[in-house]
Structure formats: structure tokens, C-alpha cells
Amino acid sequence: MRKSVVVMLALALLIVSAPAAVVYASGDADMGKDSGTKAMAAIGALIGIGIAALGTGIGQGIGLSKACEGVARNPGASGKITTTLIVGLAMIESLCIYAFLLSLGVLINQKMFF
């Protein structure tokens, strides 16, 4: 199972990076509109924000489940656990916001947005 996931991810990376390699090999110094650079930037931005959202979602789910377990074991400490959970979730969410801003920066740099 794990080996097939790694193979599928490697093939997806190869498929996504092939157009950029062709443009680089052709020596197109202009990197104009016909080269697919904008399409590759858009795909990269979408993949980046997707991976960031997936990772933060998993992290938030694990954090919430552990907080619920902690409150179930010691209901008296629920106030401290809740405060720590909210701070932790805010830090996790800030990573996804940072990835969103980077993806937005890539799109703005390619003049695809604004």
C-alpha cells in the first residue's frame, strides 16, 4: 500500500513538472504566454494550498481528539486544556494562512490575479 502511494506521488510529480522541464530545455528566454509557465504556477499554487489545508486539518483533528481525551480523564483541568487547545489551533491555522499567502504571491507574480 505504502509503496503504491509513493509511486503514485512520484508519477504525479513527474506529470506536473514535465512541461516546465520542456520549457527550460527549449531555451525560451522570454518564458512567454505560450510556454505554460502560468499554468504551472497555478497548478503549483493549488497543490501547495491543498497540501497545507490537508496537513492543518489533520493536525487540528489530532489536537482536538487529544484535548477531548484530556478533559475526559481530568474534567477539573478543562479550562487549562481549552486555553492551550485554542492557542495551538490558532498556531496550526496560521500555517495554512501562510501557505495561502505564498500561493497568492505566486499567482500575483505571474499576473494571474489582480
Topology (elements, then pairings):
Layout: H1 2-26, H2 37-73, H3 78-109
Assign the CATH class of the domain at 37-114: Mainly Alpha
In percent, how helical is the residue content? Answer: over 70%
Shape: elongated
Strand content: under 5%
Description:
The chain is mostly helical and 114 residues long. The chain has a domain at 37-114: F1FO ATP Synthase. The chain has 3 helices and no strands. It has helices at 2-26, 37-73, 78-109. The longest helix is centred in the middle third of the chain and has 37 residues, at 37-73. The protein is elongated, with a radius of gyration of 21 Å. The relative contact order is 0.11. The model has no long low-confidence stretch (mean pLDDT 81).
Give the gist of this structure.
The protein is an all-alpha fold and 114 residues long.
What characteristics describe this protein?
single chain, mainly alpha, F1FO ATP Synthase, 114 residues
